[in-house]
């Protein structure tokens, strides 16, 4: 348990530092600032949804589908569906 | 007391770096690109694929092509991992309401901001205040849900 916690911590450190280094090296197009309310709301939804649904695009998508997990397939289809519906509403209905 | 495994720690860090490189290179850290991928309705606008950006399908598709083969092979070829005691595998098998509701909420947040947890953390030092706002709210949401689910 302790060891895997060290491992998870170091993985996250690599993700954060690697993200900074590779973004500088490869260049990521800058994006205009968006509404803080939208970002906080979206962050809360992603955080709550990830824990409640036991996984995200990496956990259910990359790992779960690779394990042929039915739960992960259901999760991926669900979040792709609600993600697409959200983009439809924000970019086609409201825009 | 278990032995401290420096090789496992070092490898975890390298895996984090590798994952970050893939997320940046593939465009997963660009919210506009993610929302372009989720814009399935855009297929109906103009000539196919219209305003739908299908490129990110190859990111998850490519990753799953690797894990499908690798996980099956590793499960058969090795009884236990090299650097730790056992493979950690999720135990739950049944689809329940928590899974579906959680995934649904996740999708709404993903579609609103164009960030999911991995890319958000990978761009926290390069994406400015937008990513900080998203990531802090995400961590608050995660901790609050974990706390609430303890009862």
Structure description:
Chain A folds into two domains: 1-28; 53-95. Chain A is globular. Chain A is an all-alpha fold. Chain A is built from four helices and no strands. The N and C termini of chain A lie far apart (48 Å). Chain B has 151 residues and is mainly α. Chain B folds into two domains: 1-89, no CATH class; 92-151, no CATH class. Helices cover 62% and strands 0% of the residues of chain B. Chain B has six helices and no strands. Chain B has helices at residues 6-26, 31-38, 57-77, 97-113, 117-122, 129-148. In chain B, helix 2 packs across helix 4 (97-113).
Which features characterize this protein?
heterodimer, A: 95 residues, mainly alpha, 0% strand, globular, B: 151 residues, 6 helices
Can you give me a brief rundown of this structure?
The complex is a heterodimer of chains A (95) and B (151). Helix content of chain A is 80%, strand content 0%.
Report the helical percentage of chain A: over 70%
3D shape of chain A: globular
Distance N to C terminus of chain B: 31 Å
The class by helix and strand makeup of chain A works out as: mainly alpha
pLDDT < 50 runs, ≥5 residues of chain B: none
Oligomer: heterodimer
Mean pLDDT of chain B: 93
Strand content of chain A: under 5%
Average the pLDDT over all residues of chain A and give the rounded result. 92
Report the order of strands and helices of chain B. HHHHHH
What is the element layout, followed by pairings?
The complex is a heterodimer of chains A (95) and B (151).
Chain A (H helix, E strand, L loop, with lengths): L1 H25 L9 H17 L4 H10 L3 H24 L2
Helix pairs in contact in A: 3-4
Chain B lengths: L5 H21 L4 H8 L18 H21 L19 H17 L3 H6 L6 H20 L3
